[in-house]
Amino acid sequence: MSRSLNKNSNQCLSAYGNNGGFSLVAVIFIIVVLASAVVFLQRISNVSVATNNLAMQGARAWQAAEAGAEWGVYRVTTGGCPAASTTFSLTEQSLTGFDVTVDCTSTTYTESGATVTMYFIDVFARSGTLGTTPDYVSRRISLVVEG
Question: What is the pTM of this model?
Answer without folding.
Answer: 0.69
